[in-house]
Design brief:
By secondary structure, this protein is an alpha/beta fold. The chain has helices spanning 48-64, 85-99, 117-127, 149-164, 181-192, 215-225, 281-289, 297-300, 303-313, 317-338, 344-362, and strands at residues 11-17, 22-30, 36-37, 40-43, 70-77, 107-108, 173-177, 196-202, 205-208, 234-236, 248-251, 270-272, 293-295. Bound molecules: nicotinamide-adenine-dinucleotide (NAD).
Length: 368
């Protein structure tokens, strides 16, 4: 049985396709606010339990972003490195056929690990509706991830937090971990808002320049030399980034980068979590107790899911940026106002659960 608590899980669909050997699972946690929305990952060691945890997290993320979506997630157990493109397509199409009955009423898919806009187009094609998933190519009505909605949302959430603290972002120093999709756009927009990005890292290390780094220069250097560490400045280990004397720290690449070994050395006053789970809750609590404003991942990096919602509505990129800005700014503000003793994650979870509960009550799924 799938019951965990009052919220879910609603459905766990485990599938196997004899012809292609495809094995997968689609977990629908809660659909009180709308169809469960969450990505599809294709990895060789994915488990049902992992997908359940991710589906549950999507319920809270989508509710906190105030989207008419519930929470869901899918996992396909396969190793794309050992497949030809046609074999990968066969696996995607087999998965689509097996879970078609719940699409798009109960589940709307999206890209995740090892699935891209190409797989989304194939998945939607096999389901017979472009509403089956988001993250599709622009030529079939998609809003590509390359527009930078997530990094933009991180910059907006940070700007709101700075204002809430009664400070001015202009001239504030920033360190950003990771210079991929999220990190590059977070830098671009924070620079536009007047912040001074002094450190950026990638897998080769950190570049630290007290006088400030420029987004356009770093993009050029990354494209030419393959690493931001080729820029002018002091070259440090990647892990040193978290200990630099900056106002704002943006973990934007890997999980658990702030941990018990370095949390006491974090000097930033704001930690904007662009990556997923860059610190465990007990580590975040150490920061909060020191008065650091932590913008939790599911609040700060919700720009991507908000863009997905805009894609399902058929809106263009200009409208999408406006919706991301409005929703992230409003939700960050509500969270900061409700947070007691700086515990922003607890406040955000209470808001998200309250919204899901309200929808459940309205639909008669939750009786007082
Ligand atoms: P990406 O693959 O585009 O970029 C990752 C970056 O991290 C690369 O620049 C890489 O060089 C860098 N990196 C790798 N190892 C590193 C290390 N040891 N130190 C410093 N940098 C390192 O990924 P992305 O899409 O930017 O996603 C980053 C994080 O944000 C992930 O946790 C992801 O789950 C999360 N996230 C992304 C989105 C999105 O829309 N892209 C949405 C929500 C959350």
């Amino acid at each position: 049985m799938n019951r965990e608590d009052e919220y879910g899980f609603e459905k766990i669909i485990e599938v196997y396709d004899q012809k292609t050997g495809m094995q997968g699972v689609c977990v629908i946690h809660n659909t009180a606010r709308g169809p469960g929305k969450g990505g599809m990952r294709m990895v060789p060691d994915v488990t049902k339990e992992e997908v359940m945890g991710l589906a549950r997290a999507m319920t809270w993320k989508n509710a906190m972003a105030d989207l008419p979506f519930g929470g869901a997630k899918s996992g396909i157990r396969a190793d794309p490195r050992k497949m030809t493109p046609l074999q990968k397509e066969d696996i995607m199409r087999a998965f689509a056929r097996k879970i078609k009955d719940v699409i798009p009423g109960e589940y709307i898919a999206g890209p995740d690990m090892n699935t891209t806009e190409k797989e989304m187009a194939q998945f939607a094609d096999e389901c017979g509706t472009m509403k089956a998933c988001t993250g599709k190519p622009a030529c079939v009505g998609g809003l590509p991830h390359e527009l930078g909605s997530t990094g933009f949302g991180v910059a907006i959430s940070t700007k709101v937090a700075v204002k809430h603290m009664g400070k001015d972002l202009n001239g504030m120093t920033v360190a950003i971990e990771g210079f991929g999709n999220v990190g590059t756009f977070a830098m671009k927009f924070l620079e536009e808002y007047g912040a001074k990005v002094v450190a950026v890292s990638d897998s080769k290390g950190t570049i630290y320049e007290k006088t400030g780094l420029k987004y356009a220069d770093l993009m050029k250097i990354k494209a030419e030399k393959g690493t931001v560490t080729a820029a002018k400045g002091e070259k440090l280990d990647a892990a040193k980034l978290f200990e630099l004397p900056v106002d704002i720290l943006i973990p934007g690449a890997r999980p658990d980068v702030i941990h018990k070994g370095n949390v006491e050395h974090v000097k930033a006053k704001i930690v904007s979590e662009a990556a997923n789970l860059p610190a465990k809750y007990e580590i975040e609590q150490v920061l909060m107790k020191k008065g650091v404003v932590v913008l939790p991942d599911f609040v700060a990096n919700a720009g991507g899911v908000i863009s997905s919602y805009c894609e399902t509505m058929g809106w263009d990129s200009k409208t999408m940026f406006k919706v991301v800005e409005d929703k992230i700014a409003t939700n960050t503000k509500i969270m900061l106002e409700q947070a007691k003793e700086h515990d922003t994650r607890k406040a955000a979870m209470e808001i998200a659960k309250g919204r899901v509960r309200e929808a459940m009550e309205m639909r008669g799924w939750w009786r007082k």
